[in-house]
């Protein structure tokens, strides 16, 4: 991460003496164990790159979970 990033406050706006914690959430996703049903959907997406709605129908997982799988895919997150 560079010195300034879009969407983050300028360093001069952070009060002196405040503790700052930076967490990269995209790395935290993989430390959470997935439900076995979600693991099957993730493996299928890695092979076939289905969209979220198709995974939602095929694996009966919540649409939000299917969208999360698609968003974390390096190839699909660009589209």
From TrEMBL:
The keyword Metal-binding applies. Keywords: Endonuclease, Hydrolase, Metal-binding, Nuclease, Nucleotidyltransferase, RNA-directed DNA polymerase, Transferase, Zinc, Zinc-finger. It comes from the Eukaryota. GO terms for molecular function: endonuclease activity; hydrolase activity; RNA stem-loop binding; RNA-directed DNA polymerase activity; zinc ion binding. Pfam families: Integrase_Zn. The keyword Metal-binding applies. PROSITE patterns: ZF_INTEGRASE (PS50876). InterPro entries: DNA/RNA_pol_sf, Integrase-like_N, Integrase_Zn-bd_dom_N. This is POK25 protein. The gene is Ervk25_1.
């Amino acid at each position: 991460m560079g010195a300034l990033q879009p969407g983050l406050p300028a360093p001069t706006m952070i009060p002196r003496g405040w503790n700052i914690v930076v967490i990269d959430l995209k790395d935290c996703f993989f430390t959470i164990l997935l439900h076995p049903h979600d693991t099957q959907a993730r493996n299928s997406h890695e092979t076939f790159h289905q969209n979220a709605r198709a995974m939602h129908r095929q694996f009966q997982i919540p649409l939000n979970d299917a969208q999360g799988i698609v968003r974390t895919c390096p190839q699909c997150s660009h589209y």
